[in-house]
Structures are given as structure tokens and as C-alpha cells.
Amino acid sequence: MEKIYIQATEFTPQVHFDPSNGIIELRGNSNPHNSLTFYTKVIHTLEDYVVNDTRGLVANMAFRYFNTSSSKCLYDMFKQLNAMRKKGRQVTINWYYSLDDEDMYEVGKDFSDLMNLNFNFIAMSA
């Protein structure tokens, strides 16, 4: 499986997915013109990882903002992580949020509850 690295822009997050080390990181804003187009390769690589690898995964999520269509893509990613967890593999999700951004904290709680995944909530100073 190949590594994925996408540099952040004003509208898209930095994405770093390193399957060989079992880590995926998304940081920044996610408001792309077409979220599905932006996230498709990441979601497909994650699906492949879940099916063809036996290791766990650490997911670091640090968003300042994401739009509704991005949240659907994140939901699809969390479904894959949940499938991995159900296979007995270690899944660690670190949800970073700004101390002054209660909404981003709540969105993380919603994803955690909806997907029955344990998130580590990590507050960052602004």
C-alpha cells in the first residue's frame, strides 16, 4: 500500500496516511469543492488497509472546520475504523480540538457515540 500525503490548502486538510506505520492524520480545514473527490483515494486506501493488513491504526484528527459533505466522508472513514475494531485490531483515535471550540469537541463526541468508537479528546490551546 502506498503512502498518501496531501498538503493542506485554505479549503482542504493536510492528509498523511502511512500504512506501513499504521497512522493516518488529517489536520486543518475541510471545505473542498467536492469532498467525495478529495477523500476518495484516502477512503479506498483505508478500506484496503482494513481488508489486507493485520495491524492496528492510529488516527489523529485535528480539524479547525469541516463542512457537511466532509463529515459524510469522515463518517465513511470511521466506519472503516469500526470494522477494524470489530476484527479485534487496535484502533486509537485522537480527536484534537481547540479549547475555545466547543462545537468541534461536540462533533467528535457525536462521531464517537454514533460509531461506538472510543476517542481520546485532546484540547489544544488556540
Provide a descriptive summary of the structure in words.
This protein has helices spanning about 35-50, 70-85, 100-115, and strands spanning about 5, 15-20, 25-30, 55-65, 90-100, 120-125. The chain has about 130 residues and is α/β, with parallel strands linked by helices. A six-stranded mixed β-sheet has the order 1-2-3-4-5-6, covered by helices on one side. Strand 5 (about 90-100), helix 3 and strand 6 form a beta-alpha-beta unit. The model has no long low-confidence stretch (mean pLDDT about 95).
What share of residues are in beta strands? Answer: 25-35%
Secondary-structure element sequence?
EEEHEHEHE
Q: Radius of gyration from the CA trace?
A: 14 Å
* Strands side by side in the biggest sheet: 1-2-3-4-5-6
Q: Secondary-structure blueprint of this entry?
A:
Elements: E1 4-6, E2 14-18, E3 23-30, H1 35-52, E4 57-66, H2 68-86, E5 91-98, H3 102-115, E6 119-124
Parallel strand pairs: 3-4, 4-5, 5-6
Antiparallel strand pairs: 1-2, 2-3
Helix pairs in contact: 1-2
Features:
alpha/beta; 126 residues; six-stranded mixed beta sheet; 3 helices
Short description:
This protein is of the alpha/beta class and 126 residues long. It has 3 helices and 6 strands.
